[in-house]
Amino acid sequence: MGNCNDYMKRCFGRSDRRSYLRSRYRINDDFAIEFDNLMDNEDSTEERRRLLTDEEKTLLSERRFDTLVQEQRRIDAQIDSKLAQEEEDLRLEEESYYEAKREAARVSNLQQQQHKEKLTKAKK
Q1: What pTM, to 2 d.p., does this model score?
Q2: Long-range contacts: 41-44, Cβ < 8 Å, 24+?
Q3: Which of the listed residues 15, 36, 91, 94 has the most CB atoms within 10 Å of its CB?
């Protein structure tokens, strides 16, 4: 049950994420200072790591699940279209790469043939 409560706290951004940082500074071989600092782990990236946005929390508390589902479908459609565009760009880039590779091979073969022809003419 404790894990479930911790998970729900994280979903709603209510977790207490503090830890202790133990540091030791050596002044010389005989003398060292050791102390503990209470560190807050909540940094600016915490906003990006939250599972629910404030709007989603509001929709859940008001039990407007259909609106939440529609919003998520809209976001999913945006992500899908962006992914499809990236895949198409990658496909076109790949095609141009292989076309350039074929062209380079063709030019190389043509140069080899010309070089062989020059050698055969020089021998005669």
Answers
A1: 0.46
A2: 41/17, 42/17
A3: 15
